[in-house]
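Let's sit down with a protein and look at its sequence and fold side by side. We need material for that, and I hope you will provide a protein of your own picking. Once you have written the record down, we can walk along the chain together.

***
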Amino acid sequence: MNKETVEFIDRDLLAEGDYVSPGLEIIKPDQCFPNMIVQDTSASDWPYLRRDIPHNWYVDQREKSVGFLNRDEAHILYNTALKFRGKRALEIGCWYGWSACHLALAGVELDVIDPLLAKPDIYDSVAHSLQSAGVLESVNLVSGYSPDAVAELAEQQQRK
């Protein structure tokens, strides 16, 4: 099969309501996030949620008012990170690991700083999802607040 046929098949297998911009390589680590569900955007009172965009809004069923990146945003992140395969990257905030998973699957060596990682249930959930995706060993999960945790990490690892 040629690349265009594979891309067509990949796009055809996206769920109704999912969208990935043309030309982006598609991955689908959904099975690594067993608590991810589609939620109605009216469940959130966050004023910046773009309710006018007709993409599926994915949330973790344990926290239904906070969403993940939508499928297109995750793929923009993934495809951008592909250009930096093998390089170091830093993510501030990972909300159950969806975005971190996409970055790590692209091949970056990722440090993630998130104060919610101090909660054992959230840390375990993120670590389990990243392990299921086969990328846990390339991700350093750090509990802390930016910018202080960024400075501490840089000091510990002698990096800028």
Notes: Residues 12 and 152 are 45 Å apart (CA to CA). The radius of gyration is 16 Å. The chain has one domain: 3-157. The beta strands are 36-38, 58-60, 63-67, 88-92, 109-113, 139-142.
